[in-house]
Amino acid sequence: MLLLIFITLVALLRKLSEIPGPNRLFQILPVPFWCYFLPMVGTTLGWIPQSSPLYTFLSQQLLPVCLVLLLIGTDLKALARLGPMATLLMLAGSVGTIAGGLASFFLYRRWLPADAWGGIGALTGSWIGGSANMLAVKEALQVPDRIIGPLIIVDAGVAYSWMALLIWSSSQQAHWEAFIRPGRWSPATHDPRWGPVRDGGERGDRGVEWGGLRHDRTPRSAFDSITGVVFSIGISVLAQWLGRHLPALGSTINPSTWTILIVTSVTLLLSLTPLRKLDQAGLSKLGTFALYVLLASIGARANLTAILQTPAFLALGLTWIAIHGLCLLIAGYFARAPLGLIATASQANIGGPISAPIVGATFSPQLASAGLLMAILGNILGTYLGLAAAWLAHHLSGV
User: Fold this and answer.
1) Which DSSP letter does residue 42 get?
2) CA gap 333, 4 in Å, rounded
3) Contact 94, 381 (CB under 8 A)
4) Are 50 and 246 in contact (CB under 8 A)?
5) Residue 171, number of CB atoms within 10 A of its CB
6) What's the distance, CA 221 to chain centroid?
7) DSSP 8-state code for residue 62
8) pLDDT tens, 232-285?
9) What is the pLDDT of residues 2-25, one digit of tens each?
C-alpha cells in the first residue's frame, strides 16, 4: 500500500509538471523537490510511517538498478564539447563544494551528531551531482535517517535559495565584467571554448535529458525495454555479490560501498560500448521514475521538526554554500570568466541537470546546454567525490 502511494504521487507530480503552458510552480520548485517534500509533510502529520521495511528494500535493491538505468545512456563523449573554461569552472565548483563541506563540518562538528560525517558525504554527492548521487552515497555509507532528515531540508532550502540568488545575479553582469575586464565576451559573441555552436547556431545536445542521458527518439519495442531492465537487474545482482566478497576498508568502505562503486563504474564503462543503445528503449525514463519513488521514500523518513532539533545543520549548509560560491568567484576572477558561466557552473553543481540550464538561459540562451553538459560531469563525479568527502570528514571527526 505504501509503495502504491509513492508510485501514485510520483505519477501525479510528473503529469502535472507536463501540463502545457506556463507552469511557474514546477519551474521554481521542480518535481524532485515535491517528491521529497510532500512525503516529509505526510510523515510530520502522522499520515505516513517514518520507518518501514519497504524503505530498506528500496534503498538496497531498487537503488542499484536505478543507477544502471540512469547511467547506461550517458554520453561521455559529449563532455568534450564543454571546453576548458567551462570544465575548469565546473571542477572549481566541485572543489569548492568539498572544501565548503569539510570546513563547515570542522566549524560546527561539536554541535552535530558524532556520525554526521556520513551526511557530509551524502550532501556533497547531491551538491556536485544530484539526488541519485546523494542516495548512492547514503546507501554506500549506511547514513542513518536521523542524519539524512535534516540534510534533506538543508538541501532543498539552501539549494533553491542559492538558485534564486544566482538568477538575481544576472542583473550584475556589467559590474562583474567591469571588475574583471574580460575583453571580447558578450552573450551574442561568446568564446567558442564554452562549447561549439551547431545546427545553424543552435547549441546543445537536445537529446540529453535529466541525469545527462541522451535519448534516441527511434521507437523501440516493449521487448527492448524488458531486456534493458533485466540487464540492469543483472548488473545490480552481480555488484551486490561482488560487494559482499570484497574486503571492508575502515568505516567508509563496506559491502554497500563496494556495490555502489561497482554499479557506477561498470555502467559508465559499458556506456562506452554498443550497450549504450539500450537506453533507446527508454531506460532512463524508467530510471528517473524509480529515482523519484526513492526520493519519496527518503522524504518519508524525515520529519520537518528535525531541523529544529539540530539547527546547526542549517548553519552548516549556509556556511557551506558561501564557501562554494567564494571558491567559484575566485576561480572565475583568475580565469576572467563571465558571470553567466560562473553562475551556470555553480548551479550545475548545486542544482543539477534540471535547473542548471534554467540558470544558464537567464544569462544567455547559449549557456543553457553548457549548463546541462556541466551537470552531466557532476552526475559522473558526484558519487566518487561524495565518498571521498565522507572519508575526509570521518578523519576530521576523530571518530
Assistant:
1) H
2) 50
3) yes
4) no
5) 10
6) 30
7) I
8) 899 989 988 988 888 877 666 778 878 888 888 888 888 888 888 878 777 888
9) 889 999 998 998 888 777 665 566
